Amino acid sequence: MMAKKLKTIYHEPRYIELLKKFQHDWIEFAAVIANKKPTWQQRLIIEAIQIKGARVSVSSGHGTGKSDMTSIMILAFLILNPESRVVVVANNAAQVRNVIWKYIKINFNAICYTLPWIKQYFELNEREFYAIGYKGVWSCIAKSARQGNEEALAGEHCHTYLVVVDEASGLSDKALQILSSALTEKHNNMCLLSQPTRSSGFFYDTHHRLAKNQANPHGIWTALTLSSEESPLVTPEFIGEKLISYGGEDSPEYQIKVLGQFPNNADGFLLSRSDCEHSARLTLNLEHGEWGWVAACDVGNGRDKSIINICKVTLDSPEERKILSHQILEMRSDIDPIDFAYEIQKAVEPYLNENISILIDGDGVGFSTVKTARQIGLNIQEIRWGQPVFSSSQKSRFINKRAFSHIMMRNAIKTSRMRIDSTEKTKEQISRLPVHLNESGQWVAVSKKEMRDKYNIKSPDRSDTYCFMFLASVTPAGQREQSINFEDIDELFQNF
Asked: Of 315, 349, 350, 378, most Cβ neighbours within 10 A?
């Protein structure tokens, strides 16, 4: 007895009608079939990518709906082009599953609600979306582009083929070149989507020397820039919040993550000399709110000075915190880390009855200082700022606590919430702090070794102590100290 032949979508008359209506009008497909009317920014992406042989590069800020509309673009390409192939690429497979694949599920369900008959002809699981009877052929899959393993991206070919690359600015040039080299046929399309985190490389080139525009009519790529400020999906309150948290419209982070623009200066210094001069002259009154004493101590290693910085610090969250310089003490460069613990004891003694919080960097030689300070009875908060930051939202912005505290200091100085001491050494150090955004859009404070080797900058020991203030668990002055471990501060900042 012959096996029953599998029924495919080619046997479905309604499919032919679907192709006639929407194969060349994906915007209408989105609005009518997926019940998702595209915004004007989303229309730009769809109109560009539905052209045969299109090369589209999208630089976008937050909240433009690019991931949602990318999923509809993928569904339209696959459903409306028989026996087509789509490959979605990102730095890791989890990134695809958590973002684009999630939207594919949502929007395919919407399509099935509008066209209940289509569900029997397509299958969607955690790894693949494919036409029944054409698994591995008429399908969409996800691939990761791990650095050093780019060759695994090779080998994809199809007469009707779409490559979608999410967060393309973070992929290596080798990965993007391998993907683009597979586009050998007339109906082979490619779409790059990303925040513009790098001012160099393949993605950058698709918006500049390879971009098609009036100055370069022979360019290959259609380059689109989507600003959060112009998105109908973004509220004015969101923009205002990002203006504050990102450090103003001139900051690289605001340019990248809100304006969708390649930054004017992503590798510059954290603060200018004029910023420091203004901070040192600032009149700051903390008497109307709760505040406490903080002694931030940076342990030198022989080349660098050991510093004790005593400040008044408000009990606000890091984004609201105010800091008022009170006294800064510089030790001789050859002081032993154990002897430094006793110097800390002498410096904080007048403030012990006022519940002063004592911070010491515990990395490297600071371990001995922390151990000795605890042995002599001081209640120490140990700074380990090479560790990851507190919450998942912060991890998307900061590589570690060191970067976090530097940006918090920058924001406090920029918004007149921090008065530093007036010494020339402090102003010199704070105005020469190299920072940059990495390929994932996270802030990185340049390592001390790189400061020394690349920039000829000595260790910013004074500046470090001001940064520590944003990692402190502060006890109100004059109140009994609460029993709280410094480790618990991670939990306190979860909602920041």
From this structure: 378
